[in-house]
Amino acid sequence: MNNFFNDVLNTISSLPFVVQVTGLKSNPRHNIRQHGNRDFKSFVYFPPYIALREHLDLMAVYLLDLHHSAKTRYNKQSKCITKLRYDGDVGLEERDDLKEAYHHVITLGTKHFRPEIIKTLFDEIRFIGKQEVAQTGPITHAGSEIIDFITTIAARNMWGLETNKIPINVPNHANPIDPLPVINSKIVNQQKISSFSINKKVIQLLNYLFYTL
Predict the structure, then answer these.
(1) What is the DSSP letter of 195?
(2) Partner of 21 for a Cys bridge, out of 35, 47, 166, 190, CB 3.0 to 4.6 A?
(3) Closest Cα to residue 19, out of 154, 127, 164, 131?
């Protein structure tokens, strides 16, 4: 087990990729889907919709820098297109929200960028389910598991939650393995966002609005 985790960290360290992190703090008790009229809930988004729109805004900053660097380095017009891949099975409840977030960004732009530049930067979004990997052929699910590992460590560190679980304690080994320095070295951008809270008065107003429509 000790060798396994060291191999994982060596792989993360050696491969040429970067990590960008968007953390959305959302209190489930304040999620509008948990309150009010049941029919009204079908008209609102899951928190991942908010998180993905903010994350694509953050990614656009990095991708624009890549475009600028490529044009400077090669002294010609370069076109870099990003294809988004999301680890999500067909039964993923937030699937439609994430699709809509992507298509809204392509159509309307992000918080900072107009749709024209977003269309240049992003090409497509696709969801990769477990049934498509690790079943037949050489493609495994190991890449998604490594992403889950990175996400868990980054989230614990970002929000200061369960930080005692960040060091990996392996039985019969005195010194725990610390993955934080390796993962932090890959992070180029990160942001923390808080979702809004909804009080009872707002819920009453929303219900009234729904019933009067």
Answers:
(1) P
(2) 190
(3) 154
Give me the count of residues in the chain. Answer: 213
Residue 66 token pair: 């890549």
Q: What are phi and psi of 123, to 5 degrees?
A: -105, -45
Distance from C-alpha of 132 to C-alpha of 89, rounded to nearest angstrom: 9
**Crossing angle for the helix pair 2-14 and 142-159, nearest 10 degrees?**
90
- State how far the Cα of 92 lies from the Cα of 73, in Å rounded to an integer: 41
Global pTM value: 0.81
Helices marked H in the chain: 2-14, 47-74, 95-108, 115-121, 142-159, 180-184, 200-212
Helix segments in 24-46, DSSP class H: none
State the Cα–Cα distance between residues 169 and 139, nearest whole angstrom: 30
CA distance 147 to 145: 5
How many whole angstroms from its chain centre is CA 27? 18
Which residue has tokens 């005692």? 164
> For each successive 10 residues of the chain (213 residues), what is the average pLDDT?
94 94 82 62 80 95 80 56 82 86 96 93 86 68 84 95 95 94 96 73 58 54
Listed in sequence order, the residues at least 6 apart from 59 whose beta carbon sits closer than 8 Å to its beta carbon are 20, 82, 121
Residue with tokens 């996400």: 151
